[in-house]
Amino acid sequence: PFGTMAIQLAQHRGARVISTAHSLEDKQFLERLRPPVARVIDVSHGKTDVAGSCLEETGGLGVDIVLDAGVKLYSAEDESSSKSQLLPHKHDIITLLGVGGHWITTERNLQLDPPDSRSLFLKGATVSFLNDEIWNLSNVQQGRYLYILLVATWNSDCSQQHFSPFHFRPQLDEPIPLYEAKVSMEIVQKNQARKRQVIQF
């Protein structure tokens, strides 16, 4: 859901979007989006050169903004989890950034070594951090976030296309029945999992 909304907001602002997909279902969903994504890179097999694909798509210039949903900090032998194997490596992200590019990361434990910092310095690139709670920390940003939610909700509820030329299309997880909502909420409250659920009435 995070990536899908980010893609559609970027397209709404006129950006040309390159996205990764971690499964065949995600790839098919992204390819059906309108306006279309410029390129969908399938990383489900873990052997895709994300940096090379992005540089090819941009004619070797690199991208202006990278928004990640996590990065691989170490080499493959140091990270064993299957999820981390699908994430792009931090060196790939630095490589695919263009001059003056911005890297927005959700990785809370990002560590940049001196060569990484030097590469970012030579490109004049910046690194920013994004987390779910950031919207609640600033009253100024809350209005912007509520506006995004309002537009997304209004467009999804609106059946007449002449109200807005752009419609957000959320990608929802499987809805759970109402009788399972209590169990799901208890799991979240006990900090056993952090997830968003759609409840079907």
TrEMBL record:
Domain (Alcohol dehydrogenase-like C-terminal): residue spans on this chain: 3-69
Source domain of life: Eukaryota
Stored Pfam families: ADH_zinc_N
InterPro entries the UniProt entry points to: ADH-like_C, CRYZL1, NAD(P)-bd_dom_sf
Signal peptide extent: none
Designated name of the protein: QORL1 protein
Species this chain originates from: Scytalopus superciliaris
Lineage of producing organism: Eukaryota, Metazoa, Chordata, Craniata, Vertebrata
